[in-house]
Amino acid sequence: MSKPVLHDYFRSSACYRVRIALNLKGVDYRAVSVNLLEGAQRSEDYKAANPQGLVPMLEIDGHRLTQSLAIILYLDGTRPSPPLLPPHPADAAHARALALALAVACDIHPLNNLRVLKYLKDELGQPQEARDAWYRHWVTEGFEALEAMAAPRAGRFLFGDTPTLADVCLVPQMFNARRFEVPLDAYPTLVRADSEASALEPFARAHPDAIAAAA
Fold this sequence. Notes:
With about 220 residues, the chain is of the alpha+beta class. The chain folds into 2 domains: about 5-80, Glutaredoxin; about 90-200, Glutathione S-transferase Yfyf (Class Pi), Chain A, domain 2 (Up-down Bundle), CATH 1.20.1050.10. The protein is about 55% helix and about 5% strand. The chain contains 11 helices and 4 strands. It has helices at about 15-25, 45-50, 70-80, 90-100, 105-110, 115-120, 130-150, 165-180, 190-200, 200-205, 210-215; strands at about 5-10, 30-35, 55-60, 65. α1 links the parallel β1 (about 5-10) and β2 (about 30-35). The radius of gyration is 17 Å and the shape is globular. The two termini are about 25 Å apart. About 35% of the residues are buried.
């Protein structure tokens, strides 16, 4: 069976999530860089494989999978150890809510991804200061809700004492928050969970700086 191929961009938080999940699952994969700044995702060849023209795309088990959370849930379904969702249905629903419905993957990221920031710059003519303020606003609003939701049931990680899908989604967004100098003092639960997860080898190996250094 051929080695899985991840079509990746090192600073994409969606790709970062998938890299973490692949590492946690022990999947040996080959990364192919898709340079978003140069518009490689809009090339004819790439869009023929992925009509959305987005990253990540994972070629695995004879499939071409798109959308980071769909990819991660596929990995969790086909490679169940270690699990990324708790065994109890209510706990699993809570972990999914943290990752999917609350802030990290669905509320913050779509508003602050590169396509949106480039539109603010190129089409609307917004200066860097305004674009940075936009980014910080949506991260802050999302983190406020996420902190309140996570705190009552958090342990070492965002939920309990083992990393889950929620942490896979949190860590890339915390990386972006620091890049844009979002103050984090008001989110001790998020900061603690991020610190615990980031210290683990699968998370550290997926970090954008590690990917850039290996390129």
